[in-house]
Design goal:
alpha+beta, 6 strands, 34% helix, globular
């Protein structure tokens, strides 16, 4: 079961600007837990070193943040900002493909890795992922790639809450991904990051 929240994350903030909360409407001005944690993931994304995407992820278990991660090069190595260019852009690699040719580790992967470094269990936790285009500031559908989805499944996480290009959020149940991959294949995913296999589809239509 997938649940999509159409309300924009910023709606509560806009409503509260210049307004003094009074009695009955105080609860309406309070952000939900999903919005709260996704807002923190947005701050984490500010540490990203990728030219293409700024992504932040955090993992919450028992209502406590146990790990965070952002898109960045492996520890103590030179990132794309230090190099001054994106290797994937230079090689004309589309979004969602050939991640072995990338200097960065994905935010979701770093969050899982950082938890392992600290010896913290992720079982039953939730992951929150916020993403935007650093060149335009536009929020994106921060859905995990196939590699990250496989890691999330094996880490034993429960839910994944992602920012969307419309300014809202979308919630996925990890057990649904497992069920879908039992019944079909990963290439049949309805929510894929980027445009994977675009070239192959075009070739098939020729």
């Amino acid at each position: 079961m997938k649940r999509k929240i159409k309300r924009k994350m910023s709606s509560r903030k806009k409503k509260s600007e210049g307004t003094k909360p009074q009695g009955g409407n105080r609860a309406e001005l309070r952000v939900s837990k999903d919005e709260y944690y996704l807002g923190i993931a947005r701050e984490v994304s500010g540490r990203s070193t990728c030219f293409r995407r700024s992504i932040g992820a955090l993992i919450v278990r028992d209502d406590q943040i146990i790990s965070t991660g952002y898109v960045g090069a492996p520890r103590k190595t030179r990132d794309s900002l230090e190099h001054g260019f994106c290797l994937r852009d230079r090689l004309n690699i589309p979004h969602g493909q050939r991640y072995e040719l990338c200097r960065s580790v994905h935010a979701e992967q770093n969050a899982i890795i950082n938890a392992a470094r600290a010896g913290v269990s992720l079982l039953g936790g939730d992951m929150f992922i916020y993403g935007r285009d650093p060149r335009t500031g536009q929020e994106i559908d921060a859905f995990p790639c196939f590699i990250c989805k496989k890691m999330i499944i094996n880490a034993g996480l429960n839910r994944v809450v992602c920012s969307t290009s419309s300014g809202g959020l979308q919630v996925f149940l990890v057990e649904d991904w497992v069920r879908e991959w039992q019944q079909s294949d990963i290439l049949d995913d309805t929510h894929q990051y980027g445009k994977p296999l675009e070239n192959e589809k075009q070739n098939k239509n020729k």
